[in-house]
């Protein structure tokens, strides 16, 4: 249990930056859903989804390659230097290409009047790619405070500029005096939602400036042999990452092309994207867990009883995800306040997407085996399988079901990838997971949710009574888990 408690502690430390930071960042969602119309928010969601694909190309698995080769018999400084110099060169090249062909790219994605969007994103992608390994190095060195500080700074700067451009400037432009004269110098109401992207760009610049101390560690000693090994190791992760991003964001990137009613496609996309954000708690937990788990699993790979520990980690991960699912769904009337009223017609997707994210988190846990054993090609196989299935399901379901089809496609794909990773992992790196116990907790969470839903429909209690019943059900679930797991907590794992 000592190692698991250490992982929990590291998850909490990284969670400070990720949870607090993501919460601050997610505050932009209620802000956007009250400043923008669903159609305008649909534009923002679509373009950010497209950029997430390109970011995979800009980093090409170098972060995981860095962790992998740093744990081997290599000079860590050489690994870091080779990785940073590689990202610097590739970012300059790729960003330059995007800027050079910005008009053509803007026309291709159906924003011919806004080639500046492409230029801004080219700069954002280049800067963020260059920041990837400095952040990874901070994680490797367990410098969580520094990591958290820079991450939070990035988000606060982004939020600050969003408020400045979308609230203060529109107000000052209609006033008289100094603020109006100042605003006239750099603000144009015609840019509108484009200020979201400008805010991202400015926050990326500030982040890079604060990571300069980590970039000073880079020495001009590029090890080409080591670099080739890192590229070979990371290339399957590039393919897998790109395919994985199809699974995560392709629904928003292609929605307007497949929607049953093209005239309101961006409006529906805005509603779907906003409701997607209501899975915030699940997403936050999975993200913080990944920050801590990847270096943790690598560092414990050769330790005694490591597989037993991995199985225990999976159990507590599933318990936490099940609890989060219930927390959101039993108090959905509170969580829905997070988004504007014009976006709440899509709340039916929330339980589906919560379960989908739970499956994705389990998949991340299961898939550590191929990273630990260096068989990263399986990551590409799983993600390509998921990508193909995603494309098929979206092509089939969105034209008939709209964004509900996108939500169901997400759940089916993540569940299929989870099952495939488990079956394959048991063949190549067998871990004795408590499958019946894990399924029991997921099933119990679903049963509790349906019980709450049934009680609400049959009795139609008032809001206070409904919250009281749901709180009792949530505590009942927690009590059941405690009774089963408490005897196991006293047993040492390693």
Brief overview:
The chain is mainly α and 494 residues long. The protein has helices at residues 2-26, 28-35, 38-59, 62-70, 76-100, 102-108, 115-140, 144-172, 178-186, 194-210, 212-215, 224-258, 265-276, 280-299, 306-330, 332-335, 350-366, 368-372, 377-401, 403-428, 435-459, 463-489. It is globular, with a radius of gyration of 23 Å.
Tell how many strands the DSSP assignment holds.
Answer: 0
Q: Please work out how many helical segments DSSP would assign.
A: 22
By secondary-structure content and strand pairing, the structural class works out as mainly alpha
- The portion of residues forming beta strands comes to under 5%
| Average pLDDT number | 85
Descriptive notes:
The structure is a single chain. The termini are close together. Helices cover 81% and strands 0% of the residues. It has helices spanning 2-26, 28-35, 38-59, 62-70, 76-100, 102-108, 115-140, 144-172, 178-186, 194-210, 212-215, 224-258, 265-276, 280-299, 306-330, 332-335, 350-366, 368-372, 377-401, 403-428, 435-459, 463-489. It has 22 helices and no strands. The mean pLDDT is 85. The protein has one domain. It is mainly α and 494 residues long. It is globular. α19 runs antiparallel to α20 and α21 (435-459) packs antiparallel against α22 (463-489).
What distinguishing features does this structure have?
single chain, 494 residues, mainly alpha, 22 helices
Topology (SSEs and partners):
Blueprint: H1 2-26, H2 28-35, H3 38-59, H4 62-70, H5 76-100, H6 102-108, H7 115-140, H8 144-172, H9 178-186, H10 194-210, H11 212-215, H12 224-258, H13 265-276, H14 280-299, H15 306-330, H16 332-335, H17 350-366, H18 368-372, H19 377-401, H20 403-428, H21 435-459, H22 463-489
Helix pairs in contact: 1-8, 1-14, 3-7, 3-12, 3-13, 4-5, 4-7, 4-12, 5-7, 5-12, 6-7, 7-10, 8-10, 12-13, 12-19, 12-20, 14-15, 14-17, 15-17, 15-21, 15-22, 17-20, 19-20, 21-22
């Amino acid at each position: 249990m000592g190692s698991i408690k250490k992982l929990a502690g590291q998850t909490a430390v990284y969670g400070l930056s990720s949870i607090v930071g993501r919460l601050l960042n997610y505050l932009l969602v209620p802000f956007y859903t009250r400043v923008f119309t669903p159609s305008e928010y649909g534009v923002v969601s679509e373009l950010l989804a497209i950029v997430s694909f390109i970011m995979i190309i800009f980093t090409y698995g170098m972060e995981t390659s860095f962790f992998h080769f740093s744990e081997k018999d290599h000079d860590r400084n050489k690994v870091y230097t080779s990785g940073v110099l590689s990202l610097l060169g590739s970012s300059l090249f790729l960003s330059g290409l995007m800027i050079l062909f910005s008009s053509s790219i803007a026309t291709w994605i159906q924003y011919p009047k806004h080639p500046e969007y492409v230029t801004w994103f080219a700069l954002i992608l280049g800067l963020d790619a260059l920041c990837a390994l400095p952040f990874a190095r901070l994680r490797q060195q367990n410098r969580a405070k520094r990591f958290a500080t820079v991450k939070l700074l990035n988000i606060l700067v982004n939020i600050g500029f969003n408020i400045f451009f979308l609230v203060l400037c529109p107000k000052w432009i209609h006033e008289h005096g100094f603020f109006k004269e100042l605003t006239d110098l750099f603000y144009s109401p015609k840019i509108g939602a484009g200020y979201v992207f400008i805010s991202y760009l400015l926050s990326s610049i500030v982040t890079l400036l604060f990571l300069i101390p980590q970039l000073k560690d880079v020495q001009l000693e590029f090890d080409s042999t080591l670099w080739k090994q890192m590229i070979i190791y990371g290339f399957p992760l590039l393919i897998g990452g790109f395919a994985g991003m199809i699974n995560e964001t392709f629904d928003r990137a292609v929605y307007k092309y497949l929607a049953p009613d093209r005239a309101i496609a961006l409006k529906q996309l805005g509603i779907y994207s906003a409701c997607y954000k209501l899975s915030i708690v699940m997403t936050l937990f999975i993200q913080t867990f990944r920050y801590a788990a990847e270096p943790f699993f690598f560092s414990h790979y050769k330790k005694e009883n490591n597989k037993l520990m991995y199985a225990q980690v999976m159990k507590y991960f599933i318990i936490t995800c099940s609890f989060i699912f219930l927390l959101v769904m039993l108090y959905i009337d509170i969580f829905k306040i997070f988004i504007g009223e014009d976006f709440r017609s899509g709340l039916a997707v929330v339980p589906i997407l919560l379960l989908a994210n739970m499956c994705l988190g389990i998949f991340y846990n299961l898939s550590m085996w191929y990273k630990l054993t260096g068989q990263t090609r399986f990551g590409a196989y799983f993600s390509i399988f998921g990508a193909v299935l995603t494309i098929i399901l979206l092509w089939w379901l969105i034209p008939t079901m709209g964004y509900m089809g996108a939500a169901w496609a997400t759940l089916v794909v993540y569940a299929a990838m989870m099952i495939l990773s488990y079956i394959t992992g048991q063949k190549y790196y067998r871990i004795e997971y408590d499958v019946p116990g894990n399924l029991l907790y997921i099933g119990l969470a679903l049963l509790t949710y349906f019980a709450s839903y049934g009680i609400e429909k049959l009795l139609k209690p008032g809001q206070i009574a409904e919250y009281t019943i749901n709180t009792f059900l949530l505590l009942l679930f927690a009590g059941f888990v405690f009774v089963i797991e408490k005897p196991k907590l006293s047993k040492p794992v390693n």
